[in-house]
Amino acid sequence: MINNNNIISSHKIITLVKNYPIPVFAIIGLLAGSILQWTLNQHELGRWVWFITLVVGGTPIIWQTVRGMLHRHFASDIVALLAIVTAILLNDAFPGLVIVLMQSGGKALEDHAFKRASSSLDALLARSPQLAHRKKDHGLEEINVTDVRVGDLLLVRPGDLIPVDGEITNEQAEIDESALTGEPLPKIKKIGEQVFSGTINVGNAFEMRSDKISGESQYARIVHLVRKAQQEKAPIQRLADRYAVWFTPITIGISGLGWLLTHNVETILSVLVVATPCSLIFATPVAIISGINKAAKSGIIIKTGSAIEQVGKAQVVVFDKTGTITFGTPIVEKIISANKINSGDDLLRKVASVEQLSSHPAASVLVKKGQEICGKLPIPTNFHELAGAGVDGDVEGEHIVIGSQNVFENFVDAGFAEYIHEVKKQINAEGKMLAFVSINNKPAGVIVFGDEIRPDVNLMIKHIQKLGIKKTIMLTGDNIDNAKNIAQQAGITDFEANLLPEQKVIVVKRLRQEFENVVMVGDGINDAPALAASTVGVAMGAHGTAISAEAADMVLLVDDISKVSKVIEIGQKTIQIAKQSIFVGLGVSFVFMAIASLGYIPPAIGALLQEVLDVSVILNALRAR
Question: Is 320 a catalytic residue?
Answer without folding.
Answer: yes
